[in-house]
Amino acid sequence: MRTDIVHIGAGELTYEIRNIVNVGEKLEKLGIKVHWENIGDPIYKGEVIPTWMKEIVADFAMQDSTYGYCPTRGVLSTRKFLAEQTNRRGGAQIDANDILFFNGLGDAISKVFGFLRRNARVVVPTPSYTTHSSAEAAHAGDRPVTYKLDPDNHWYPDLDDLEKRIKYNPAVAGILIINPDNPTGAVYPEAILRGMVDLARKYDLFVVCDEVYQHIIYNGQHSLPLSDIIGDVPGMAMRGISKEMPWPGSRCGWIEFYNAHRDPMFEKYMNSLVNAKMVEVCSTTLPQKVLPAIISHPEYWNYLQERIDRYEKYSNIAYDVFRKIDGLQVNRTNGAFYMSIAFREGRLTHRQTLSIASKEVREQVEALVSAPNVSLDKRFVYYLLGATGVCVVPLSSFATELQGFRMTLLERDEERFRGIVNTIAEAIGHYLAS
Question: What is the pLDDT of residues 90-111, one digit of tens each?
């Protein structure tokens, strides 16, 4: 075209979590039965929504008001309900106007990074959830600025590394925290969270905390929401119902802003996000209307606890299998429903393979791994998929140089889950020995 129409950050928009599906679907057509361990959708993995929850949604769907627009910031009664929940904890105090609804957190993430000044950067964790790291990199048209999560220390943030990334890069204006973390399943202790907020205060930054898994914590671990520790630092927490309720298809997420009115620049930035939502008119009405009724239902927390207990059990099943394999860095998952495993440096090579019975599948995999610049862990993931049908995500696709993979803990059938874990473990052993 006579004018370049491609956004400067277009090359940074990648999402391997779904890209791997294209490969899996091709192999399915060649007769491979695929076990989809790549995406965090509880519904797809067989989660059964209880009847009482469906009845609440159905009752609201019968109300004409749920078919109309809602206020730009979101349904007022729902925002008041959420503000009261936050204020009850005794930390940051907010009102309904400090809450802004979006069509899922993907929408929120896109706007939070997209409406920053082009040369203002938010330092993100590495590994990092792809939607965050890609959106931040795309807005700046450059690679993401990252701080380390340490696989030798429970995947906790390295605060010394974080401070260096801030101190020596004056473009950094904010810190992203994902707690509980995706992709690692780590849950951050209070001391580490306070240390991150202290750095934001020291260097006059704002904080973004993705808390979509805030209520999915187990194995005796505890953490705090950002509202409890933010103090006088400007910040925002991202929350939603896609993972917890779970209702990912509702596309319903929101942001809680803290201390926005204490800093004129941050308040102006917050208002730009509100104005951006105003251009769209509003977010989806039905799930907002439903949210307080479901969370207040006497069976809600029992239902969520049943799922949490299952994730805890599965995290320990997987940990007990993978930790015995030489050549891996393995941490127990303590929150959310993901597990990230890194191969120790030097254990992967471009010569390793797995036996694939089907000639057509083997040729397809060999074509994929022979492409230019295929990372070592993506090579393993392709062979794993072709040889066993298990679909996981390369760890290197999460804005990290570490080589490994991420899987989910969402399979409901325990026997099948144990089979998947053992299949992966056996494949790793053969792959490293080849």
Answer: 999 999 999 999 999 899 999 9
39: Cβ contacts below 8 Å, ≥ 6 apart: 17, 18, 21, 408
Q: 365 is written with which tokens?
A: 């995999």
Q: What is the three-class DSSP state of 424?
A: helix
pLDDT at position 18: 61
Give the list of residues 6+ apart from residue 181 with CB closer than 8 angstroms, or none: 125, 149, 155, 187, 188, 335, 336
- pLDDT grade, residue 13 (50/70/90)? very low
What pTM does this model have? Answer: 0.92
Per-residue pLDDT tens for 34-80?
898 988 899 989 999 999 999 999 999 999 999 999 999 999 999 99
Count of C-beta atoms within a 10 Å radius of residue 324: 10
E strand or H helix at 258: strand 253-258
Tokens of 175: 């810190």
Q: Are β-strands 404-408 and 338-343 bridged in parallel, bridged antiparallel, or unpaired?
A: antiparallel
For the chain, list the domains and their CATH numbers. 10-47+301-433 (3.90.1150.10), 51-295 (3.40.640.10)
CB within 8 A of 349, min separation 6: which ones?
376
Nearest alpha-carbon partner for 284 in 108, 112, 47: 108
Residue whose token pair is 């067989």: 46
The residue type found at 110 is: S
Output the pLDDT for position 357: 87
Enumerate the β-bridge partners of residue 235. Answer: 207, 258
